[in-house]
Structures are given as C-alpha cells and as structure tokens.
Write a structure and sequence with these properties.
- The protein is mainly alpha-helical.
- It has one domain.
- The chain contains six helices and no strands.
- α3 packs across α6.
- The N and C termini lie far apart (68 Å).
Length: 147
C-alpha cells in the first residue's frame, strides 16, 4: 500500500506581518497613500464611516468603564463605612505619591525607544499622506462620540 506524503508549508505570521502593516494592505500597497487610489469623496466616506464606528464604540466602552469604576468605588466606600473592610489611607496616600513621582520622572525624560519612535514616525507619515481620509475619520469619530 502506498503511503501518501503530504507536505505542509509552515507560515510564521509574526515574521510575515512584521514588515507589512495593515494599512498598506488596505490602502494601496505600492504607494502607502490613499490619495492615488481613491477620489476625495470616497476617502471622506471611508474615513467618516470608520471614524463614526470607532467613536460610537469608544462612547459605549467609555460609559461602561466609567460606570464600572464609579460603581466599584461606591461599593468600596459602602464596605468601608459599614466595617466590612478597613482602608489604610496613609498607605494609599504614600503609594499614590510614589506613583506620581514615577510618572513625573518618566515624563521629564521624554525619551522613547527607537522602535516606538520609528512606529510613531511611520504613523505620522501615513497620516500626512492620507490627510483627507484622516480628516474624515476625525469628523466621523466626533460624530460617533456625540451620538
């Protein structure tokens, strides 16, 4: 009986996508600019629709997060006042002050790692090349947050 050998190619997605950002696949892989691929109305529509969807989701998630944090704080206060838990306020204040100092220390240096800086530069270049799409997204995002 003949045994059939199947050969499979293994695709390492991390390596495959490392030099292929998602926006290059969506907006003209050859140029990186949507201005050469779509007309102004299409760019505004794409940006506006994606911006509205993103803003709408951010609004809903923001309300849910605010409710969860506020509700949790409210329950902790009730538990503290009824005696179920005891909060060491001096320890809490010391830890908050320590966190503030660390934030001041990290923000005063204002140093980004080269990898983060290159990603930020890449995003800025993309936004500049696709200014109409970016404007539509920003407008749609604000409308989505308002609705």
């Amino acid at each position: 009986a003949g045994v059939k050998e199947d050969s499979f190619n293994v695709l390492d997605l991390a390596e495959y996508t490392k030099n292929r950002p998602w926006w290059r696949k969506v907006f003209a892989p050859s140029s990186g600019s949507s201005a050469e691929k779509y007309n102004v109305a299409t760019q505004l529509m794409i940006g506006g629709v994606t911006g509205w969807c993103t803003g709408f989701v951010f609004q809903k998630v923001g309300k849910l997060a605010a409710t969860a944090v506020g509700g949790g704080f409210f329950l902790l206060q009730i538990a503290n006042h009824t005696g179920y838990i005891k909060v060491d306020w001096k320890l809490l204040e010391r830890d908050v002050n320590k966190a503030k100092q660390q934030l001041k220390f990290h923000s005063s240096g204002n140093k980004m790692s080269p990898e983060v800086k290159s990603r930020v530069d890449e995003v800025i270049i993309f936004l500049k090349k696709n200014i109409i799409l970016t404007g539509g997204f920003a407008g749609g995002f604000l409308l989505g947050m308002a609705s």
